[in-house]
Amino acid sequence: MVPCRCASRSRVLAWTATGALLAATAACSLTSLDGFTASARADAGPIDSGRATDAAAPTDDGGDTAAVSHCGNGIIEPPEQCDPGMTTSEACVDCKVVCSGPDEHEDPTTHHCYAYYGDAASERWDVARTTCTTWGGALVAVGSANEYTFILGFAGKDTWLGATDIAKEGDFMWSQPEPFTFTDWEPGYPSDTDHTHNCVAIAASLEWQDRPCSSTNQVLCERLPLGTRP
């Protein structure tokens, strides 16, 4: 309680239900126990009670409030790497990507996880796709030169990619929903003159060739971070 000494005995001081002090007359000197003095005017309305409001504090630049992570809501928000919502997944723990198996490689920028089986598995394209699905991902879809450079750091020749033109001859697409915009074809490819080379693999040149899907190559899988981007 702050003692009050008024210039006029007719001044009426009242506490509202919210704890704000209402001034009903002319100036009044409020003197606290430590000698601090503040003046209130009759037309000033409620005096600030110092209570915190529900509004979020603005950022230093006066713009929007800083992003807040809500791990478990299914939306990947900084600093989260993944967010599977209420689903339990070994690939995402506490909204951090888990990519630490003996054949797994995590891109530190995108947090995509890759599994390269190398000589341990040489399979037809359709079997390789099933292998990746079982692992929790898909045959790799290369979206940029940076991604391909990262992949070539651990993968080599005779490795399946997720590209195919099985649905429509000459119209290649990835087996996962990603636009087919980046390519690195070896000169002379694609070369499917007899419509039997419908799947894409990394050649000895480390460029791409279209090959029969029934041929066998090594398996390279990719798993995107679980969750939805805002």
Question: Can you tell me about this structure?
Answer:
This protein has helices at residues 125-135, 145-151, and strands at residues 4-6, 13-15, 21-23, 28-31, 37-40, 92-93, 96-97, 104-106, 113-116, 122-123, 138-139, 159-164, 173-174, 199-202, 208-211, 217-218, 220-223. It contains two helices and 17 strands. The radius of gyration is 33 Å and the shape is elongated. It has two domains: 4-44, no CATH class; 102-223, Mannose-Binding Protein A, subunit A (Mannose-Binding Protein A, Chain A), CATH 3.10.100.10. The two termini are 49 Å apart. β14 and β15 (208-211) form a beta hairpin. The longest helix is centred in the middle third of the chain and has 11 residues, at 125-135. The chain is mainly beta and 230 residues long. Strands 8-9-17-11 form a four-stranded antiparallel β-sheet, with helices on one face. It has a four-stranded antiparallel β-sheet with strand order 13-12-14-15, covered by helices on one side.
Write the topology of this structure.
Elements: E1 4-6, E2 13-15, E3 21-23, E4 28-31, E5 37-40, E6 92-93, E7 96-97, E8 104-106, E9 113-116, E10 122-123, H1 125-135, E11 138-139, H2 145-151, E12 159-164, E13 173-174, E14 199-202, E15 208-211, E16 217-218, E17 220-223
Antiparallel strand pairs: 1-4, 2-3, 4-5, 6-7, 8-9, 9-17, 10-16, 11-17, 12-13, 12-14, 14-15
